[in-house]
Amino acid sequence: MSVFWAAVKPTRGASPKKRKATSKVRARYKVPWKALSSALAVMGLLGLMVWSVYKIEPLKIIQEYTNKPIANVSIQGDFKYASQAHVEALVAEKLSNTFLELDIMALKSHLEKHPWIDRAVVARQWPDTLLIKITEQQPIARWNNQGFLNLRGEIVNLSNKTELNHLPLLRADDRYTERVMQQYVLMAKLLNEYNFAPLVLELDNTLAWSLTIAPAVAIKLGRDDSIEKLQRLMRVLQHDLNHHAAHIEAVDMRYKQGFAISWKQNPVVAIDSQ
Predict the structure, then answer these.
(1) What pLDDT score was predicted for residue 161?
(2) Closest by alpha carbon to 112, among 141, 98, 91?
(3) Residues 6+ away with beta carbon under 8 Å from 84
(4) Is 73 left (phi over 0), alpha (psi -120 to 50) or beta?
(5) I want to staple 139 with a disulfide (CB 3.0 to 4.6 A). Which of 120, 148, 186, 228 is the partner?
């Protein structure tokens, strides 16, 4: 029986030598865990030695830094009604906590409860400074007997209203604050063109407008076309009654074809404005 040996050429990629070489290449990228563990152990031992010699306590250092008290408080703002000393007193009421423990939003809310503070911005500045920027309310006119209206037509209540005596007075139900503010802005602009100023503007329960201008002239405008009626009256006062305005006590603009004037010492005289 004869045996036949045939040499078979190995296929590409199946060489044992290449497989072995690949294994060596992969082995080069293995993480040296033993060496890394030894290094960490040495570092830990060194840290323990430093602590034992110099008594350095990392946790204590961190606590001292995070529990740092507030060293400086910077308050910025243009103060006209709320004094800076008063704002500083309000801030001091909330500074019992440390720099990082301080509740920023609580301090902001506390400051904005003050009637003369419209907005407060509070921020930390490392490492121990508190920055506060104050925007004061801008009173536009007195409102009923409560306080004043700001630019947004919001009611700001005040206990002491003596600082507002120079402002015009607006009267209406609290539901109509925005409507009255818009009407006031339009009328004040119109009156300013003729060198007059509003003293009192009122919207009554029937939604009729009445206005008092300097020098104490009461004007009834009614419910409709109040701006047009006021414009017509201003033209007459400027041209026909320019020298007699100081003697007028009241004007009734609720007529379709004209208006009636009540003089301070004379009876009512009807004037055709056409």
Answers:
(1) 83
(2) 91
(3) 75, 77
(4) beta
(5) 148
Token representation of residue 17: 């030598």
Query: Which amino acid is it at 274?
Result: Q
Lowest mean pLDDT among 19-28, 94-103, 145-154, 187-196: 19-28
How many CB atoms are located within 10 Å of the residue 209 CB? 23
CB 258 within 8 A of CB 271: yes
Neighbours of 150 (CB within 10 A): 19
Q: Return the amino acid letter for 5.
A: W
Confidence label for 6 from pLDDT (cuts 50, 70 and 90) = very low
- Rounded CA separation 186/106 (Å): 39
3-class secondary-structure state, position 93: coil
DSSP string across 203-245: E-TT--EEEEETTTEEEEEESS-HHHHHHHHHHHHHHTSTTTG
- Give the DSSP letter string of 136-176: E----EEETTTEEE-TTS-EEE-S--GGGTTS-EEES-GGG
Dihedral sign, Cα of residue 202, residue 203, residue 206, residue 210: positive
Distance of CA 118 to the CA centre of its chain: 7
How far is it, in rounded angstroms, from Cα 211 to Cα 196?
12
For residue 252, give the 3-state DSSP assignment.
Answer: strand
Distances (CA, A) of 251 to 102, 190, 225, 267: 60, 17, 16, 12
From its phi and psi, is residue 207 left (phi > 0), alpha (psi between -120 and 50) or beta? left
Amino acid at position 247, single letter: H
